[in-house]
Amino acid sequence: MTETKKLKSVKIIDTIAQHFYEVNYGDNWTDASVKDILHGITYEQAIKKTGSANTIALLLFHMDFYNMVVYNRIVGTTKHFEHEESLKEPNISSEADWQQLQQQYFNNVNKIHKAILEFDESRLFEQTTKNTPYKNLHGLVEHIHYHLGQISLLKKLTTE
């Protein structure tokens, strides 16, 4: 007879927070993270046009923008955001500017991670204007994964 292990009950919100953290810092099932992909990218690479409308810097700015949109939703801030605002090329003209953009991104990741952990799980499936917080938080992770693929390709194109 095989012994069955009983799994501990896991809070959904903790799992969502873990997925968000891991897509940014690593150790997720895709083995790709923002931190790992950005490692070694210079500011010249970050702003280099490769035939795509996007640059690495623009994609990082765009991801940060939408991360903060979802953050504002889960903490209850009602502010209207225009999609076009997320597509403004950031002003990067030095390595310091590029490092500052990355630092801002990860500072916001830490802020969002904390807010997710503090979110009242009983509210995850409340209908908001368009979605539930559950769908917004999962969409946040999906959005990051999507743009990680783009950044990875652009990184290869800018190092050749």
Describe this structure in words.
It is a single chain. The chain has one domain: Four Helix Bundle (Hemerythrin (Met), subunit A), CATH 1.20.120.450. It has 6 helices and no strands. The protein has 160 residues and is mainly alpha-helical. The model has no long low-confidence stretch (mean pLDDT 89).
Helix content class: 55-70%
Q: Beta-strand percentage?
A: under 5%
Counting copies of identical and different chains, the oligomeric state is single chain
Task: Tell me the major beta sheet.
Answer: none
Structure summarized in a few sentences:
With 160 residues, the protein is an all-alpha fold. 59% of the residues lie in helices and 0% in strands.
Describe how the helices and strands are arranged.
Layout: H1 12-25, H2 34-38, H3 43-47, H4 56-74, H5 95-118, H6 133-159
Helix pairs in contact: 1-5, 1-6, 4-5, 4-6
Short descriptors:
160 residues, mainly alpha, Four Helix Bundle (Hemerythrin (Met), subunit A), 6 helices, 0% strand, globular
